[in-house]
Design goal:
Layout (H helix, E strand, L loop, with lengths): L1 E3 L29 H14 L1 E3 L6 E2 L2 E6 L2 E5 L1 H10 L29 H14 L7 H8 L7 H16 L4 E5 L21
Antiparallel strand pairs: 1-2, 3-4, 4-5, 5-6
Helix pairs in contact: 3-4, 3-5
Length: about 200
């Protein structure tokens, strides 16, 4: 639902106080109840000009596909844009985001690269972790080297982009179910960090 309203932009030099209006009521929707949503829309339409735009399909660069069995979110469009930005469209896909057992340090002897460019690469990947937990660990590793990146760090970062190129349609699927288990994993191998 799109609520149309006016916003004034400018520098305020006065103190502004805001207070909740009398009769204001907070409604919380906790279940998938179509009649409750219809009532909410009617109430909103009394005070605001609104347009019902249907189910959400896109939000902050995240594509949303809603179905009977659940909701799938991904960033396929963003991935394509980022691959193009960093000239990785023609890169060969790689099967994993990082080679197993690789240990890198801040001072690996590689030639230094432009830190602004490297930070841009890493930040693009960090935004992708919203819908791609499969790259979270690898992106965390390369994030350690943003201050003084080398060609080795850049090569590892581009390997993650190659993995993403081969898995462009991956995302998160939230199943409609009342019966689920939450399972978490943690890497507690602090001895493999060669810098700290």
């Amino acid at each position: 639902m799109d609520v149309k309203s006016a916003f004034l932009n400018g520098i305020l030099e006065e103190e502004v106080y805001v207070e909740q209006p009398l009769g204001y009521e907070v409604k919380v929707f906790t279940e998938n109840n179509p009649s409750m949503f219809d009532e909410f829309k009617r109430e909103m339409a009394k005070d605001f000009e609104i347009t019902d735009i249907g189910l959400m399909s896109y939000y902050l660069g995240i594509e949303v596909k809603q179905g009977e069995d659940g909701i799938f979110i991904s960033q396929e469009g963003y991935v394509k844009k980022v691959l193009k930005k960093f000239n990785m469209n023609d890169a060969n896909p790689f099967g994993t985001p990082m080679e197993c057992g690789v240990k890198i340090t801040k001072q690996d002897g590689g030639e230094k690269v432009n830190s602004t460019y490297f930070k841009s690469l890493v930040e693009s990947l960090r935004y992708l972790t919203c819908t791609r937990p499969d790259i979270f660990y690898s992106v965390g590793i390369i994030s350690r080297f943003m201050e003084e990146p080398t060609t080795t760090h850049c090569k590892m970062t581009k390997m993650i982009f190659r993995y993403i190129k081969g898995t462009i349609g991956y995302g998160l699927f939230y199943v409609s179910s009342s019966n689920f288990d939450i399972v978490g994993y943690c890497d507690s191998d602090w001895s493999s960090d060669l810098d700290d």
